[in-house]
Amino acid sequence: MSLKTMGHVILPVLAVAAFLAPFSLLQAAPQPPQHFERRFAVKGRPVVILQNVANGRIEVKSSKNSEVVVAATQASNKIGIVAEQAEERVDVTATILDSTAPAAELEANFQLTVPEETELQLKTQTGLVYVEQVMGDMTLQSVAGDIHLKEVSGYIVVRTTGGSLVCTQCAGKLNFSSISGNAQVLQPGLSNVTLFTMSGNILFDGDFIRTGIYSMKSGKGTVEVHFSGSDSFDLNAQTAMGTVDNQAEAYLKPDSHGVRHMASRFTKGLFGTVGSGLAKVELSSYSGTIRILKRD
Amino acid sequence: MQCKEVAVVLEQEGCLPVPEAARAHLAGCNSCRNFIADLTAIIATAHLLPAEVEPPPRVWTSLRVQLEEEGIIRSGARQSWWASFSEFFRPRVMATAAVALLIVAVVALQLQRPATQPTEALNTSDNLYQDTSLTLDNDEARLPAMQLAGNSGVDVSLRQNLDIVDKFIVDCEQRVKQHPQDDLAREYLTGAYQDKAELISVMMEREGSGR
């Protein structure tokens, strides 16, 4: 075969290969992220429900506008996002369309913009849930994702398996429950607090409202409370196998309400009153440390 | 398969583990997944209740009156026993009955407490703890292989947390065994059983939805 003949045979093959090469590269390359956005006009106080069966972050911020904006970025078309409205209810669901897809393709990140007064029900698997400046009752659930709340108020219910909670300048009522997540409540204006974690740590740093009721329990972690000198509360701290580290002895007086508390034979306890004992604070840990200290 | 048919399958085969026939439907039905999660939680809670408690007749009377008022049961024997039985397994009725049962048990426990010797009460609750522990261990053993081998962050997190709960339960059980009158340890142990039941329920739900 002459060189000329060989060229006649090889050149078309090379040309076809050169033509197809970009397509094969495209197929192997990851799909570009897809964007989703819907706007829903609302009148009063909407209820926004978001269930993210896929993984990903959820961010909620408020605006003065009477509308709910749902924006999402999904890693692939293997996730389906549906958003619908029924008057004041906006329902958003992200579902997995191909459960055999790799985890990296099963991610959807949401950004919600809602009116300041909005009720929220958010559920995700992993990824941060961040809510800022929203007033309204909210239920937030996550398996492994952390939950950060800033300047929110209402009846706040948080459930995680391993995710931690950071609640900064929250008001209203807070109920947190987790297996291994930590809880940090900072500068709160909360009148009712229930925190439970089996192995995580709890930190409450802020004022106790005078009629408030506060219950903080950790199975194996540390429960730490920082109070201010102007606070007024009755304290009941108990641990079965842990320790109570009282760094505020100067501020704790015997209970002033006539009830004589005694720790059981099997627990270590600390009872006392700060100020007039108006709020009620119950701290408990099975085997962790309970630490009480006054802020500077 | 429709939601009604899922209820029938659950009635016939139970919900632990989720019957094969219902799994495909559960993958796309939030309502049924929630229903199964509720049932699992009710069953786990029921295991924490003492089976021997006999509530006083007046509790039954008031419960019966309440159920009749809500139209859940009728005073006459117009329905066949099978129709009444099927009616009982309607989800709403079952949930109501379960809650009513819990109330009856709690009331009965409260009434029974002063008359019971402390050691008897402790023995009863020890048996309850053992039963609950055994039931939960059996449920854990039935967790699908996929859930136990899954590599996703969620599966790994669920497994790690189940391990944490298991170790905490062992710790608390040991403490309660050594100091049966340690109420705080008992409180944490009961809570840990409930957490374990919920965790297993979530893991089974994930398996049911094919994730």
Q: What's the structural blueprint in terms of helices and strands?
A:
The complex is a heterodimer of chains A (296) and B (211).
Chain A: H1 3-28, E1 34-41, E2 47-52, E3 58-63, E4 67-74, E5 79-86, E6 89-96, E7 108-115, E8 119-124, E9 129-132, E10 138-142, E11 147-150, E12 153-160, E13 165-168, E14 171-178, E15 183-186, E16 189-197, E17 202-205, E18 213-218, E19 223-227, E20 233-239, E21 243-246, E22 268-274, E23 279-285, E24 289-294
Parallel strand pairs in A: 2-6, 2-8, 3-7, 3-9, 8-10, 9-11, 10-12, 11-13, 12-14, 13-15, 14-16, 15-17, 16-18, 17-19, 18-23, 19-24, 20-23, 21-24
Antiparallel strand pairs in A: 1-4, 4-7, 5-6, 20-22
Chain B: H1 3-13, H2 20-27, H3 30-47, H4 57-69, H5 81-88, H6 91-112, H7 118-141, H8 145-149, H9 153-178, H10 183-208
Name some characteristics of this structure.
heterodimer; A: 296 residues; mainly beta; 2 domains; twelve-stranded mixed sheet; 9% helix; B: 211 residues; mainly alpha; 0% strand
Structure description:
Chain A is mainly β and 296 residues long. Chain A has 1 helix and 24 strands. In chain A, the strands form 2 sheets. Chain A has a 12-stranded mixed β-sheet with strand order 1-4-7-3-9-11-13-15-17-19-24-21, with no helix packed on it. Chain A is elongated, with a radius of gyration of 27 Å. Residues 20-28 of chain A have low confidence and may be disordered. By secondary structure, chain B is mainly α. Chain B has 2 domains: 1-48 and 117-211; 51-115, no CATH class. Helices cover 76% and strands 0% of the residues of chain B. Chain B has 10 helices and no strands. The interface between A and B is medium-sized, with 30 and 30 residues.
